[in-house]
């Protein structure tokens, strides 16, 4: 699998695609959607679609595709090669969401949660297939969240397409298994061949599984923790594992949109806490005789006579 | 009465000229940071607009020059006197003529506080200039 388009800039989201088989443009098609790398605190999350003519469902099944989680890495690689060889009737497309994309979106001023991010990636891929002229009739989706709502959302978004959202769809429908294999292979390659944007010298690549509960992953996170910058962009800062470690081992960082409660937060933001009205000391303020012009206060410019 | 502050001008020649970054957050730390290891290499530039992330938050940045005729300096006091009366000696540890100004998620604009503040020296010149005619 060629990941060079993603590797050229692994701080953003990237789409990788196979050629679209001619048969998919002329015949009714089915399409499967699955993801890989949702849980890990390290590396990208990959959304994958795989599609083929409905008439070729049996042929796809005969490739012995199965849920990627039940396969070894070598078996997945092997099956991906088989899928790639079946390019006369099988097409695929992937959306690689970099860990930096995940962090910055989830921690955005207006929060963009992982579910919304996932749904949008899936919708974007289905739309891509439609835009390529794939004659979509059936879509099968694996889900971790509530299936009914998601199914309704997708059905509304793609009228004329029969959408089936099912937990464990990756073991029920071969076209979803195929999508899960493409996604997982891409995720494995991306993690293995990760090029750090940061200048960290020789990086220890013994990350473990990337899952927060893996001791190897945890010790890697501790090893590469920087007290100022936190982590390299390979880490999803929005994961509680990463946040908890930073809270205890890194310098505190405050943003203007932080939700801070209490007197300390208010004092830091130079607001007056409610509690201060109950204390005896009056808040210190500027002398009433001299009022600075708005021009200066707006620019935070002030006279300084000492350091 | 407090003592006076002396800037060691001789230190100016030995001052370094680092690339400075002004971040839109407060870091509870006063000291060194691995800027060249963790930050600078991750900065992406596209059509004059810079982007990077810090602690998982997206930043958008722009190069800002010091106002014409001004030089930026970073002053460093090696030893702070124990009383207010004593004189203080500070040295110039860095000199800069421009810096990168970073905004949280939105691209910097001329309406941002720091951009507007840079206009003041020019305006000050104008209002303090002799009135002609």
Automatic annotation (TrEMBL), chain A:
Annotated cofactor note: Manganese or magnesium. Binds 1 divalent metal ion per monomer in the absence of substrate. May bind a second metal ion after substrate binding.
PROSITE patterns, A to Z: RNASE_H_2
Entry's Gene Ontology cellular component terms: ribonuclease H2 complex
EC number(s) recorded for this UniProt protein: 3.1.26.4
An annotated Gene Ontology molecular function: RNA-DNA hybrid ribonuclease activity
Record keywords: Endonuclease, Hydrolase, Metal-binding, Nuclease
Record-annotated RNase H type-2 domain positions: 28-251
SUPFAM superfamilies named in the record: Ribonuclease H-like (SSF53098)
Database matches in Pfam families: RNase_HII
Positions bound to a divalent metal cation: 34-35, 142
Leader sequence segment: none
Entry's Gene Ontology BP terms: DNA replication, removal of RNA primer; mismatch repair
Assembly information from the UniProt record: The RNase H2 complex is a heterotrimer composed of the catalytic subunit RNASEH2A and the non-catalytic subunits RNASEH2B and RNASEH2C.
Family: Belongs to the RNase HII family. Eukaryotic subfamily.
Function: Endonuclease that specifically degrades the RNA of RNA-DNA hybrids.
Name the record gives this protein: Ribonuclease
Source organism of the structure: Electrophorus electricus (Electric eel)
Source organism phylogeny: Eukaryota, Metazoa, Chordata, Craniata, Vertebrata
Gene: RNASEH2A
TrEMBL record, chain B:
Gene Ontology terms: biological process: RNA catabolic process
Protein name: Uncharacterized protein
One Gene Ontology term, aspect cellular component: ribonuclease H2 complex
Lineage of the species this protein comes from: Eukaryota, Metazoa, Chordata, Craniata, Vertebrata
Pfam families recorded: RNase_H2_suC
């Amino acid at each position: 699998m060629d990941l060079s388009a993603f590797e050229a800039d692994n701080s953003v989201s990237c789409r990788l695609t196979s050629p679209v088989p001619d048969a998919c443009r002329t015949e009714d098609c089915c399409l499967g959607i699955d993801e890989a790398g949702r849980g890990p605190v390290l590396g990208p999350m990959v959304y994958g679609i795989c599609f083929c003519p409905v008439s070729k469902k049996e042929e796809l099944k005969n490739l012995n595709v199965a849920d990627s989680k039940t396969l070894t890495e070598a078996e997945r690689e092997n099956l991906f090669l088989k899928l790639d060889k079946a390019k006369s009737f099988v097409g695929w497309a992937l959306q690689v969401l970099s860990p930096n994309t995940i962090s910055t979106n989830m921690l955005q001023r207006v929060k963009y949660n992982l579910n919304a991010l996932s749904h949008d990636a899936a919708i974007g891929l289905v739309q891509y297939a439609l835009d390529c002229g794939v004659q979509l009739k059936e879509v099968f989706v694996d889900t971790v969240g509530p299936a009914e709502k998601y199914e309704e959302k997708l059905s509304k978004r793609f009228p004329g397409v029969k959408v089936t959202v099912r937990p464990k769809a990756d073991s029920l429908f071969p076209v979803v298994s195929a999508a899960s294999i493409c996604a997982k292979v891409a995720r494995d390659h991306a993690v293995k061949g990760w090029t750090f944007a940061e200048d960290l010298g020789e990086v220890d690549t013994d990350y473990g599984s990337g899952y927060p509960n893996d001791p190897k992953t945890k010790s890697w996170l501790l090893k590469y923790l920087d007290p100022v910058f936190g982590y390299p962009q390979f880490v999803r800062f929005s994961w509680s594992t990463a946040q908890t470690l930073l809270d205890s081992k890194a310098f505190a960082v405050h943003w203007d949109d932080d939700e801070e409660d209490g007197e300390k937060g208010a004092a830091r933001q130079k607001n007056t806490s409610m509690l201060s009205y109950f204390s005896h000391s009056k808040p210190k303020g500027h002398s009433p005789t001299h009022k600075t012009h708005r021009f200066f206060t707006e620019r935070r410019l002030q006279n300084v006579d000492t350091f | 009465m407090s003592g006076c502050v002396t800037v060691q001008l001789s230190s100016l020649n030995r001052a370094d000229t680092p690339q400075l970054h002004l971040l839109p957050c407060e870091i509870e730390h006063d000291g060194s940071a691995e800027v060249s290891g963790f930050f600078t290499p991750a900065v992406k530039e596209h059509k004059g607009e810079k982007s990077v992330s810090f602690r998982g938050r997206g930043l958008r940045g722009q190069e800002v020059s010091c106002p014409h005729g001004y030089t930026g300096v970073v002053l460093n006091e090696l030893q702070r006197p124990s009383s207010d009366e004593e004189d203080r000696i500070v040295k110039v540890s860095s000199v800069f003529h421009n810096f990168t100004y970073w905004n949280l998620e939105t691209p910097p604009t001329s309406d941002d506080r720091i951009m507007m503040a840079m206009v003041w020296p020019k305006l000050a010149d104008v209002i303090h200039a002799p009135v002609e005619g």
